[in-house]
Each structure stands twice: as structure tokens, then as C-alpha cells.
Amino acid sequence: MADTVRMTLDEVRSLATEVFTANGLSPANAEIVAGVVTAAEADGTHSHGLFRVPGYVSCVTNGRVDGKAEPEVSDAAPGLAAVDAKNGFSPPAIVAGRALAVEKAKAQGIAALGLRNSGNLNALWWDVEQFAAAGLIAIAMSTTRSYVAPWGGNKALFGTDPFAFACPRQGKSPMGFDFATSASARGEIQVAARRGHAIPEGWALDKDGKATTNPKAALEGVQLPFGGHKGNALIIMVELMAAGLTGGAFCFEAEKRAVDHGAADSGPAHAGEVIILIDPAGYHDAFLGRIEGLFDSILAQEGTRIPGDRRYVARARSHEEGIDCPAALYQQIVDMKTG
Amino acid sequence: MADTVRMTLDEVRSLATEVFTANGLSPANAEIVAGVVTAAEADGTHSHGLFRVPGYVSCVTNGRVDGKAEPEVSDAAPGLAAVDAKNGFSPPAIVAGRALAVEKAKAQGIAALGLRNSGNLNALWWDVEQFAAAGLIAIAMSTTRSYVAPWGGNKALFGTDPFAFACPRQGKSPMGFDFATSASARGEIQVAARRGHAIPEGWALDKDGKATTNPKAALEGVQLPFGGHKGNALIIMVELMAAGLTGGAFCFEAEKRAVDHGAADSGPAHAGEVIILIDPAGYHDAFLGRIEGLFDSILAQEGTRIPGDRRYVARARSHEEGIDCPAALYQQIVDMKTG
Question: What is the pTM of this model?
Fold first, then answer.
């Protein structure tokens, strides 16, 4: 048996849809979440692609997330759209609130889409890119499960709380990025543990609160914010904005509520997310033209790149050649088709 | 002669107002900028206090900034207030646009205040704290002069581009922070150079693009983003938001335009800034109560603190005891009273 299985993106989507539908997701939710998985595979971010399918499923089968949830959209204020995800996954909630949020941003110049009671498992790039493709600047912040100690402390309190940004470009795919406000994503430590590699200093403390480069000790301990006190400040901002503002659970609240069913990627329940949307034409018409001057100036220096560009290279190749799924993971997912 | 001069905050304000008025600022602008200087001294951030008075003055006397500018406020969209600072300093422009921006945020739930053609010299904490004191969450981003290389490059392109956040609290002063998205503020390198200290690795490259811990070599070279590629992504976001969105100059454009008159702190001209304002009552009423649970959980861990709290400790002490100004700086400023 080969180590990997080559799949087209259509095959990724079909397989994920079938597995999700067989394991408690409604057809509508299965289609959306399968699209998120496929987009991650296409962009080369395999840690959020098929690798995460068992995690999505276990969330539903262990009852932490409702796979059949029907998100409820409400008009909170002229500039604020709200979605109660009804403890379903966040992508269907974003899809449900998208039209109202875009309409508000285009009418007011700025708006926000707030999600509460959602299960956030995907990389935030998917969340923001779709708004940038609709011509809006998007800034997203989301909570996750509680893995990260506050700066100076040594007990898990914050999530790896991602922050994402996307900006439309004229005649090009959006520019943007997403990253964990912790020093590393949890998945990076898990990968190091599996491969027996050390992790860099500054990523984590062990269970006794001592700095460690041992990934297994790190997984039993706590992760740290990125960039010292600046990253710590950003994590607190993400918690206040993604959970406090929207009415989602803070990471530490979600963790208290959740019984850990042993599924490492089973995600938070009742979490929150906020997406701020700005119409760049609101202030003046020259935005799209002017920003190309900034991008040109960056690329004029050797060794630089525009955030997001590596995704688009991977995406073009994936559409052409398909993607490679580790054979064991492929078999694990195929076996889930029967629910 | 003593090394320092003890001053009350009223004396700081009076001296700064008098010096600014004698050196080309209108009375209205002098009062506002002197208030910013006094607030920085009160909070213990002396690098943005009296230390910066000569820089404010030289900006005006060398013609880079118009000290008598009368900012022009416009209503760009239901959620967007715009201020053309008319190449004056940013604080008078913020004061000019504040009422309209607050009104919009409270009516729409979210709004933005965009500044263009402004000279941004102050720490952004002042910019956001006043909105949090008015009950709004505030996120600010601003450009500065061009000192920072893009990640992977070695030529100055970005500013030290600060990012700030402030959040109201019930019965307490706002929580918040501001920081340069470069690894250090420029002033920290200048201080190290004066004292003959080395700077940490990762802060700067020398003029040949090689990593350096020599502060003088760093000042001749370029600064680096904080937190590696994540900080680099944030700097690009700040440039796009603070300059691209508002119509202010990107740092590299401002630098091209500016003739350097040798005043290290003379600041950027025609710069931009954006302040996003959110009414936390927009989504639900429990915000102010719920966030105290987060702050309590942070402080329950030994060694932690809430961003901004050290400022308030310093502020209380300064109101009580006054502040100490280095004698040479005091004399330099007093000598400027005659213009």
C-alpha cells in the first residue's frame, strides 16, 4: 500500500460530505463543512483539511456540537449582524449571516458579524477570504479551546485564539493571513510529538510551569502567547472581542463546561467569533489602486512575499494535480462512511 | 544643579502649552497637544512626554507639520467619519472628529474614524483611551516614519506602525494597550545607543542587512517586525488600514516626500490613522459584567497583570507627587518659550 492516496479536490469534497452526512450532520451543514475541509486541502494547510474530519465527526457523535443545527440570524443594530449558531459548527453560521453582514457593510461603510454558541474548528482564512472576495476588508477573531497561559502565568486560560485579516485586490485574489495568537498552533506541537522533534523555546511550559522544548511535556502543560507581552495583549483582545462582545463563551468558560471526551481536536462548544467588515470604497475610491504600490514596494525587496500568496500557489497546483492524503488517514475516513 | 526637576502635572501642561504657542501652534492645537504630552508624563511613558516637545516643535518650525491647521471633519458614510488633518498633528484631528464618530458608533453599533494628512507623534494609548472612557471598544492603527524592513527584506519600508486597543470597564478605568508592530519602538534603540547598551537579537539589521545588537548600527540600518512573520503580517495590515483605507500616505510614500531635516522625532507628514469603535451594548447587555470574570481569571494566576494597569498606578502617583524631568531637557524646553 502506498503511503499516500492521490485525490482530486472533487473527491475530497465528496468523501467529506458523505462522511459528515453519515455521522450526524444535516446535508446543508455537511456540504458547507466539507467545502471548508476541501479549501484547506487545496491551499496546502493539511492540518485543517482531511486530518480534521475525524475531529469534526467526534464533536458531533460525542454531542459537543450539534451537526444538524440551524443557525439563527438577527439584526442586532444598523451595523451589527448576529448569528446564534445553536451550538453548530461556525461555517454554516457564517454562511447564514453573510448576506446581511455584507449588505450592512456596503450600506454603512463598516459592519460586524458576531457569532455565538458556535464550534470553531477551521482555520480563519476561510472565514475572511469570502468577504474579501466580495470586495470588503475583513478582520476576524475567534476563540478555541483553552490551551494557553497568560503571560507571566502557567495555567491554561486562553485559547490559541486566531486572528485573521483579508483585503480585496483588483483583478487578483485577496491578500491576507491568519495566525494563532499563541506562539504556535496546537497542531504544530502535536506533529513534533509524533515525529519526536523538539519544539522551539518560548512555545510552551510543562505541567510544573517550567519552560520546555519537549512536545509531549508541552501537550501536558500549557502553550504561551506569541511575541511576549504584545501577543499576550492581542490574545486578551481576541477573547474580549470574539467571546465578550458576541456573547460566546470565553475559552475558560467553555472548558469548564466541556467534558473532555478525549478527542484532541473536538473543538470548543458555545464559542464566539467576530468578523469586522469594512468597505474600502467608503472613504475614497483610490484604495484598490494605491495598495498595489505598497505590494510592489514589498516585493521589490528580495526574500519577501505577500501574506497569502503561498496559498494561491498551492491552490493552483491542487486544482491541477489534486492532493495527497496519508493512506492511513484516508482509510480511517473511508471507514467512517458507514457512520 | 540637580539631575532632575520635579514638576506637577499642571506645570507640565502649562510649560508645554506656552512652548507650543510660542513656536507656531495655534492656541487650540497647543492646548490639545500639551494635554497629550501631560498624559504621557502622568502615565510614566516619558519617551512620549516632555522628551518629545522639541520634536513637536521642530516639526512645525521646519514646516513638515502645520501647527495652526484646522482639521476638517466629513461624514463619509453612516458608519464612517473622516477627518482631513490638513497636515496638522493627529490629536487635534481626533478631537475634531470625536463627537461624530462616537455618535455613529452608538447609533450603528460600530463605526470608524479615519484620519488623513496627519502628523502622528504620540503614543496611541491616548487615542483609544478617550473612546473607551466614553463606553466604546476602540482599536487604532497608525503609520509612522519609515524605519522597518519587511520580513525577509533589509530596506526600510514600513513604519513602527503602532496598534492599540482599549475596552471600557464598569466602575474602573479602561483596559487596553498600545505597541509598535516593530520588534521595538525606535526610542528604545535610541536610549540603548545613548547608554551604550546592546539591543536584543531580532530587533534590527545594520546598513548591510546583517543582524546586529549594536544600537548605533541599528539606527543606521533597519528595524524588524515583532514576532516574525506574524508581526510582519500585522504591520502590512496596519499600513493598509491606517494609510490605504483613510487616504493617508503609506510610510514609504511619506518618506519619499519628506526632506529629512535632521530632527529624529520630527514625525511623518500626511500620515493616516484609523480608529474602529464598537458599542459593546450592541450585541447584548452583559458585556461589562462578563469581562470582569475574564480579568479575575487572569489575575488569579500569580505573575500576571491586566494590560494598562501599570499606567494607572503611575498616573495616580504622578497626580499625587508630580513627575521628574531630566534637568537638561527641562532647560532645553524652558529655553524654547521665547520661540
Answer: 0.95
